[in-house]
Amino acid sequence: MELLEKYDVLKVISEVIAEGVVIVDQAHQIVSCNTAANKMFGYYDQDLVGRPLDVLILEGLRARHRHEVKEFMKKGIARTMGPGLELFGMRKNGQRFPLEISLNPFKLGGDKYVMALVVDITERKKAEQTIDYWFQIFDESLNEIYVFDAETFIFINVNRGAQLNLGYDLEELNRLSVLDIKPKLSNEVMKRLVAPLISGKREKVNFETVHKRKDGSLYPVEVHLQLSHIGKRKVCVAIVLDITERKNYTQQLENTVEERTQQLREALMAEKKLNELKTKFLSLVSHEFKTPLTSILTSTSLLSKYTETDQQDKRDKHINTIKYKVRHLDNILTDFLSIERLDTGKVNYNITNFPLSKLVNEVIYDSNTLLKEGQHILYPLDIDGINIEFDEKIMALSLSNLVHNAIKYSPEDTEIELRATRIGTILRIDIIDQGLGVPIEEQPFIFDRYFRASNVLTVQGTGIGLNIVRQHMHNLGANITFTSELGKGSTFTLHIPINNKENEKSASG
User: 40, 89, 351, 369 — which has fewest CB within 10 A?
Assistant: First the structure.
């Protein structure tokens, strides 16, 4: 075959090759370019023939490239150009682009030539850059990202965020499976979670679980699971969020809600109790005022009937009834006013030094008029010479209240005993009765305002006297206690500091 014919055959073959074909002679002149090469470099057909190869090489690399081509022609061995290096060509418009070149030496008519197969790898480079970009995002994401086999659940790749949170490196994780870091999930449960993805029924599965770190510690996570492929291999991609802070916030929120709910519950209970107190108060006022007022009206009406001189004893009886009932009403009003002053902090105390015997005598004398048939009060022994520093009016009010209660709640023919005992700097005064006593289940409420024990509801009373006494005692640094046995009586005890000068103050203090 003639040389020209051989050349024509070579040209025909080069045109059917998809890659760019550039043939260069020993003088580095381009002797042939196929259509793919012309298009790649931006030239028309035959524009490059006869031109030096340098026109396709970046200007700064031309000298080095000429040397390499010369050496290549001497050796005459086919190879890839610049293995491991990034190669660039230059188009007619001066634009550079990445390429790959395979060099193939051959002889034709006794002359040496090199055929370069040129591939424009611009799109491949873009794809590689995109892959690198997404891999960087994958690896640097603060969320945990896992890629694992959809059947065996063994890890294929795990990003840096997951490695840091778990405490494993990638080499260690490549030997583990999903089940090694999810202690709450069994193999069966994991298969059920993945099944809708493999069957195509769902595109994504979300669930919450816990992860186990290398050091054994646990933390809550939210998992977003999707199916993907590496070649023909089915893999799962899991994006995992550490929700420790969210769980802590939720728990704090729940605790706050529970706390607020409890506060609201307590407020509602307090309001309910207040409403009950109001109801008791209205019932109390209605009963405690109506009864004596009825007696006063009755006695007043009867007085008008006794006009004769010899009926004076009957008039005196009704006059005494009116006096007694008026005094009773006055005492009730005094108690109500005392409560109002105590609640608003408007009580001022006056601490003075006074003999105990004088005060006890006055209280007993006044109380004798209230005694029932056969009742009597036993005077305390050995109290002469005992002086105390206290508010005398409050002391008299408190002692009178306790003695009057002892009389009221004790039957006829019983004793009310007073005892006074000095214990260090404290004076203890006991008021002992043989009365009805307080049921043991109701004893914790005995000092509550308006409280009355269930076994004395038929006996006249307001249920505020003991509450007033306790508040006064506490305000003055003193105390009141009691013991009681149902059907046998009660003992109320005042604990009074003998030297109380430093406690002079107001109720608001």
Answer: 369
**Rounded CA separation 401/353 (Å):** 22
Q: Which two tokens stand for residue 74?
A: 């001497």
Mark out the alpha helices in 141-243 (DSSP H runs).
160-166, 170-173, 178-181, 187-199
96 pairs with which residues across the strands?
A: 90
Contacts 24+ apart (CB under 8 A), 220-226: 220/244, 220/247, 221/144, 225/193, 225/194, 225/197, 226/197
CATH class, range 3-120: alpha beta
Report yes or no: 480 and 495 within 8 Å, Cβ to Cβ. yes
Check: CB of residue 235 under 8 Å from CB of residue 148: yes
- Angstrom distance (rounded) from CA 33 to CA 21: 6
488-502 in b/e form (b: 16+ CB < 10 A) is: ebbbbbbebbbebee
Helix (H) or strand (E) holding 113: strand 111-120
Q: Dump pLDDT digits (tens) for 365-393.
A: 988 888 999 999 999 988 988 999 999 98
Q: What is the topology classification, in CATH, of domain 345-503?
A: Heat Shock Protein 90 (3.30.565)
Asked whether 47 and 38 are in contact (CB, 8 A), the reply is yes
Domain 126-242 is classified in which CATH homologous superfamily? PAS domain (3.30.450.20)
> pLDDT tens across 75-122, in order?
767 677 666 677 888 899 989 998 888 888 888 777 888 888 899 888
pTM: 0.43
Say how far apart CA 292 and CA 332 lie, in whole Å: 11
Query: Residue 483 pairs with which residues in a beta bridge?
Result: 491
Please tell me if the domain spanning 3-120 has the same topology as the one spanning 345-503. no
